[in-house]
């Protein structure tokens, strides 16, 4: 269950932000959103729910996930620190200033065959492997039950689900990102695995997200159009729809759409939204060819999607947002701050192993772009004095010209 | 675990993923060491899940009147001690005795351990 202090802290932040004019909560608070709980019948789920989260199927599966979350925290606190110290020693030996930018090839030359440095990504990846295997084994061992659950809600509401089984999935979207087996398109339980796998990930990186705290924080702080008209919202690259659901909770009168290329992802997202009683629409489509009418949306968002796109797809997706957003619409794509092809060694080290070994195939292309400049040249203007909606990411508040 | 046949005949909306070289992450200078790290982390997960299950068990026992203090203060019988020590030794032999394994020596030492084959 959500830590009450954290909940209160977030609610207080939302109220403060609304009062200061940074954001509008449209009369709703983050606290109100948490009252939504999953509706599952007991016979299939004897372990019950924890607020918005279905408890994992067995205590052993749950315990292993709990281990991986704890391991990530320890890894960040101790092992990564030791590796950083080892990298510093190597830089000193080589006479390289740790604050100076270096290229990826130079970084690779320095770290290759340095166990004292590589123990950090090694342990991180070993933990990641346990995360995925634990979950995949469980879902496939109980495949009939979990498939039946999705089948029951495919055509049930609230909300709608549009799947495209014969759709040609482009290769760029079929990578096994984060070494998740099957990626977002290749395993029927991709959504299940992503949900519980990232819950472990968040604890080690950004804090708890088992009640969608991070997504709800982002949405609570999301700016609205100047005329305050919010009839339709698009969340592309929505994955399992945590941001999408939070958007509907904040804007209950709006028509909210979640779009993703991963069929199993939106299928799980729809099931979860329906069980939460949240009326959102999920579609399996491409961000760069979303099929919506021109000038349709008042707000368009995405959450850490673009670093999973090749640079040319990012440009196409931005152009598509330009087409479907009406003049004055807010465009807020949340993602990492881009930083060019070079950086300080420590930063490049993280970027390298994440790209190569955590299978983030497009992240180097993303980082090499000036993402904000790409948006600015496609009919959007960056809002003055805008603030990041979630900690750790830059502000990406753009307005459709 | 192999995938079950529960998906047969059902639409699962999956698409063939781009292959990834799982297992190619050799970065410690010796592939065996990379494997050992994977084993240790996986063992940790198994050990913690066992320990957590025992914590649940103790919590349930406490509800039934058997406190953790009762468990802590339990004195095994000599027969139990004997049997448990045998089990401990089996565990040590299986899990930790490879630390003393000298079948493989550094090739640079001139005695690489392979000559006996």
Written overview of the protein:
The complex is a heterodimer of chains A (401) and B (117). Helices cover 47% and strands 11% of the residues of chain A. Chain A has 14 helices and ten strands. An eight-stranded mixed sheet of chain A has the order 3-6-5-4-7-8-10-9. Chain A has a two-stranded antiparallel ribbon with strand order 1-2. Chain A has helices at residues 4-19, 30-33, 59-94, 104-111, 115-141, 143-154, 190-205, 213-220, 242-250, 263-276, 311-324, 345-356, 363-368, 371-376, and strands spanning 49-50, 53-54, 160-162, 232-236, 255-260, 281-284, 297-303, 325-334, 380-382, 398-400. Chain A has one domain (4-400): Rossmann fold (3-Layer(aba) Sandwich), CATH 3.40.50.150. Chain A is an alpha/beta fold and 401 residues long. Chain B has a domain at 30-96. Chain B has helices at 31-63, 68-72, 78-95. The two termini of chain B are 35 Å apart. The model of chain B is unreliable at 103-117 (pLDDT under 50). Classes of the chains: A alpha/beta (401), B mainly alpha (117). At the A-B interface, helix 3, helix 5, helix 6 and helix 10 of A face helix 1 of B.
Uncertain regions of chain B: pLDDT < 50 for 5+ in a row? Answer: 103-117
Total DSSP E strands of chain B: 0
CATH names the topology of chain A as Rossmann fold
Q: What is the level 1 CATH name of chain A?
A: Alpha Beta
- Most strands sheet of chain A: 8 strands, mixed
In CATH, the architecture of chain A is 3-Layer(aba) Sandwich
Q: Structural class of the helix and strand makeup of chain B? A: mainly alpha
